[in-house]
User: Which sequence fits this backbone?
């Protein structure tokens, strides 16, 4: 079965960077796009970007351009999301989420358990 | 960027009643629209994709309709486990973004 296991909670100071990992199993890692979505406390879902694990190409939401980097390691079936220049507004649960089917990148069928990132001085 | 709006923000419904949730896109997204359910402390769950196709394991009381800019999620007879927040998401364009709506909270009347 498809499993996405994310790294643990992080506490960071303003201005720092955070790197969240998401290890995939139960399917062919390079065949499905992976999204990153975040959710601030008590707020809605915010789509951050997407990575193609096959070639590593990425597309980011304009809001995060220049601050976010999504990468993958095919040898360990792991994707990473690094967010820099953190501010308090970046406090949120960050989810990795896999596309439902190969042919349609946008439908999210599987979600990781989420990683809480807290930005506080 | 395509902006998604949802109405109402909160919907109070009694168990067994019908719930109708709306989602609107700022420009046509064809049928490239998904609905997700999220309960407190949990990750979202896919309910509907392609505007009207139920995901695997989703009960038949959930149905989606619409195309273009106007979409509806209907829960025919609300069960206790259906009280949650529902989000729509468009995935029409490439490259992305694949934007979410702000959500509709369905609570107990």
Assistant:
């Amino acid at each position: 079965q498809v499993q996405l296991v994310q790294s643990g909670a992080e506490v960071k100071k303003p201005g720092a960077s955070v790197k969240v990992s998401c290890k995939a199993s139960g399917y062919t890692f390079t065949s499905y796009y992976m999204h990153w979505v975040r959710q601030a406390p008590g707020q809605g879902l915010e789509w951050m970007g997407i990575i193609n694990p096959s070639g590593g190409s990425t597309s980011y939401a304009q809001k995060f351009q220049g601050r976010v980097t999504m990468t993958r390691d095919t040898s360990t079936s792991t994707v990473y999301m690094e967010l820099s220049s953190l501010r308090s507004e970046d406090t949120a649960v960050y989810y990795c989420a896999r596309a439902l089917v190969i042919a349609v990148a946008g439908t999210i069928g599987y979600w990781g358990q989420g990683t809480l990132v807290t930005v506080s001085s | 960027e395509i902006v998604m709006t949802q109405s109402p923000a909160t919907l109070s419904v009694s168990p067994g009643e019908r719930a109708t949730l709306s989602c609107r896109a700022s420009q046509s997204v064809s049928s490239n629209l998904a609905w997700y359910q999220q309960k407190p402390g949990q990750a979202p769950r896919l309910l509907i994709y392609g505007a009207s196709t139920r995901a695997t394991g989703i009960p038949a009381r959930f149905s989606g309709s619409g195309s273009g800019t106007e979409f509806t999620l209907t829960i025919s007879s609300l069960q206790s486990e259906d009280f949650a927040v529902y989000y729509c998401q468009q995935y029409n364009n490439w490259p992305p973004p694949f934007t979410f709506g702000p959500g509709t909270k369905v609570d107990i009347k």
Remarks:
- Chain B touches chain A through 28 residues (CB under 8 Å).
- Chain B has a mean pLDDT of 96.
- The two ends of chain B are 36 Å apart (CA to CA).
